[in-house]
């Protein structure tokens, strides 16, 4: 499981890096040479969507999304676990249709492409779709771990750099 989570973190980080490099490169080229990278805006938007969906997968698994724990902090451990299960079930109830609809979007792109280079959009949408599917699957895994009282498996451990 650690390898899978590390791979997901690397995918999200890679696409965030790609967005930063694309944007910085375009700004540099535009300011210094008065040219711009073709499709930089469309590319940055697509890469941001991919990074967002893969990030949602991690946030869902770790339960580390932005939230207010006013109720959760005042519950006993059993109540916290039940509330975590209910919240993750609700998240799953939204992620499954989202994943389905993003896959429907992939199927409906046809020959659509970016403005300048005509890169097919289905490639970007497919990578984002896998991210939404992984998010839904990790929500199921989280529910199972919470149900079995294996909360320690849900702790975030930083990636070890070898």
Automatic annotation (TrEMBL):
GO biological process: C4-dicarboxylate transport
GO cellular component: plasma membrane
UniProt keywords, alphabetically: Cell inner membrane, Cell membrane, Membrane, Transmembrane, Transmembrane helix, Transport
Membrane-traversing stretches: 50-71, 83-103, 123-145
Pfam hit, one: DctQ
InterPro entries given in the database record: DctQ, TRAP_DctQ
UniProt subunit comment: The complex comprises the extracytoplasmic solute receptor protein and the two transmembrane proteins.
Family: Belongs to the TRAP transporter small permease family.
Protein name: TRAP transporter small permease protein
Lineage: Bacteria, Pseudomonadati, Pseudomonadota, Betaproteobacteria, Burkholderiales
């Amino acid at each position: 499981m650690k390898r899978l989570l590390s791979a997901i973190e690397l995918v999200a980080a890679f696409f965030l890096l790609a967005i930063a490099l694309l944007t910085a490169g375009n700004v540099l080229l535009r300011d210094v040479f008065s040219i711009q990278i073709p499709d930089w805006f469309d590319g940055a938007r697509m890469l941001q969507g991919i990074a967002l969906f893969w990030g949602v997968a991690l946030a869902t698994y770790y339960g580390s999304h932005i939230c207010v724990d006013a109720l959760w902090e005042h519950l006993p451990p059993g109540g916290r676990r039940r509330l975590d299960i209910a919240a993750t079930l609700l998240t799953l109830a939204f992620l499954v249709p989202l994943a389905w609809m993003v896959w429907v979007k992939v199927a409906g792109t046809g020959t659509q492409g970016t403005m300048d280079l005509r890169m097919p959009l289905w490639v970007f949408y497919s990578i984002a779709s896998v991210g939404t599917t992984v998010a839904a699957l990790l929500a199921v895994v989280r529910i199972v771990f919470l149900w079995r009282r294996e909360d320690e498996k849900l702790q975030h451990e930083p990636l070890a750099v070898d």
